[in-house]
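Project standup — Tuesday

K.O.: blocked on the structure for the chain from last sprint. Re-posting the sequence here as requested.
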Amino acid sequence: MHPSGSNEDLPARRKLLGSMVSAAALLGLNAAGATAAPAKTRAGAPPAEAQSAAPEELFAMARLRSYKTRRSSSWDRTGGNDDWVPVEPGETATLLEATGAGVVTHLWFTINSRDPMHLKNLVLRAWWDGESMPSVEVPIGDFFGLGLGEYFVYQSALVAVAPVKALNAYFQMPFASSARLTLTNEGQIRTGNLYFAVDYIELPSLPGDLGRFHAQYRQAAPCKGWTDNWTSNGSPGINDRKNLSGSDNYVFLEAAGKGHFLGVTHAVQQNRDGWFGEGDDMIFIDGDPMPTINGTGTEDYYNGAWDFGGQPFGYLHNGAPHIVDPERLGGRYCLYRWHIESPITFEKSIRVTMEHGHANHRSDNFYTTAYWYQTEPHAAFPALPTPAARVPKVLRTGGPGTAPVPAA
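H.V.: unblocked you, prediction finished:
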């Protein structure tokens, strides 16, 4: 959504979302369990002040754990200070090779490379329980929300980038029999120093009701709008067009099986002037022909409002921490939304989409990573675009701020 007139003409602002469940409570391991029994007096009866049990969260941090804490890292095996590994072009570094049951709880990287696009050229992959296809396949920058190949500092509940160039992720990634994580250099320049740490725990076994973590990269550079002959998002020929079915929407994710959608990171490079985010989110669940969930605008999906006012922000569940030259040709945005307060569930399938402009009239560049949990096996991922195709470039697509595209 976006205002088309003066501020005085705008409708009243929407009410903000209600208070959200604490991310720490949702994500803490072993945070749930039976409430503690009240202490008893010598006569065997509980004291009056302990008649009602204290809430379990009062004891969550103190509750003793029985798992084994482990780490796989790039530490110098000689005992020296060279705590890094090089990654030559075309080579793959193994980050974790674990057997048995466990949960990956934290990823940390920092990278020294002369490749200006190493965030796009280094690809993170993960396999759980001996599967043949990776459940994670994402350029490393995109996995951490740096979808334009540029570093910036921000914090969220699940992903954070700390000074200087420190990449952190806190997704829980369970595995029943094995886990394998790798990083492949698909660029042409040697990665001189890859520092990494993969924190995980070992368990005797996993509960049977756990999905496996997945992360998938997609892009459309550009998204193909239905017109290149227009001057304003609010023009009647644009604003009055209808889109109820989600036809030609940008697709974040298509998955088959049972699971839940956790969220997305979304980078945008504008190929035209004006607000890029007039498009609605549309989510189709379990084969519904019409959207099961329909939103009201791109900034609304990311829990902001009124094109973010061009102001970067970052919170636990939502943010637009990187905004450069907003609403201009060449403008750049990095966005995220975590559904940890209520992951979006599906029993058979899910298709997560968003319009690119109202009714898909714009042709900007989208680079996204979707994160979700599901039963295995998962559907095959789309082929990863080539390294050259992943590099963001402003394209000539017509519309405001650009010359019309020449006729073929």
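K.O.: great, moving the ticket to review. The chain has six helices and 23 strands. The chain has two domains: 68-203, 212-390.
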